[in-house]
Amino acid sequence: MKSEDNLDPLDGDQFPVDRQTEMSMLLDLFNKKADDKAEVVFRRKLKIESEVFELQNGLKTTIAIEREKIRKVTEDFPQPHDPKFRDFFPALGKIAGWTEEEMKAYHKPRIAPTIIKSSIYNRFPKDVMAHIQSKNPYVKWLTRLHKHYLFLNEEGILLLEKFIDDAITLMQESNTVYEFRKKHAEKFGTGFQPVLYEKYLGLI
């Protein structure tokens, strides 16, 4: 039998039963408080995400709805999609007056990424593109590690392919990039300022 002087203060067997019960109750109380606090935080977050707010275009939405829109068409990591712009570049090159060398080059003339952004990616909701850009940031001057569309899921790819087909159809009905952009903006609301665009092309 251990003497009182040799008792180990960490030895649970040496506490009276009611003392052990008291410690257990305290532990349960701490756990309950932690669970209650977590539930309060969760409910507060849920309330914030459920609050309705109005967009600039007058439509009403919630954070939860906007997050769901992003989730429906995007991935957090790049996916092994096949190249998607093989038919787009020849159609653009024709109305842009590219040379055969420019058509074959891997790095297309600087107007190419501008048109892709304005006529393809700008048709996705802004939050979708913000999400993709956060996953695929610039790694050096005007260079990203991946193509943006690699962060789209299958549903997002279907939208991308439709947007590309829409653009190609209008390119085939146009004689110049200027004419194409004007038609595209009128049909799909992608925004077009003729004066600024003419300055960009060096026409004025």
Describe the fold and architecture:
By secondary structure, the chain is mostly helical. The protein folds into 2 domains: 13-50; 75-201, no CATH class. It contains 9 helices and 4 strands. The strands form 2 sheets. Strands 1-2 form a two-stranded antiparallel ribbon. A hairpin with a 5-residue loop joins strand 1 and strand 2 (60-62). Helix 3 (88-96) runs parallel beside helix 7 (154-172). The longest helix has 34 residues, at 17-50. Residues 6-15 have low confidence and may be disordered.
Explain the layout of strands and helices.
Elements: H1 17-50, E1 52-54, E2 60-62, H2 63-73, H3 88-96, H4 100-104, H5 111-119, H6 126-135, E3 138-140, E4 143-144, H7 154-172, H8 177-188, H9 194-201
Q: What is the count of structural domains?
A: 2
Quick one: how many beta strands?
4
Q: Gap between N and C termini, in Å?
A: 102 Å
Average residue-wise pLDDT: 79
Instruction: State the helix count.
Output: 9
- Order of adjacent strands in the largest pleated sheet: 1-2
Percent range for β-strand residues: 5-15%
Short description:
The chain is mainly α and 204 residues long. It is 57% helix and 5% strand.
Task: Spell out the key features of this protein.
204 residues, 2 domains, two-stranded antiparallel ribbon, two-stranded antiparallel sheet, 9 helices
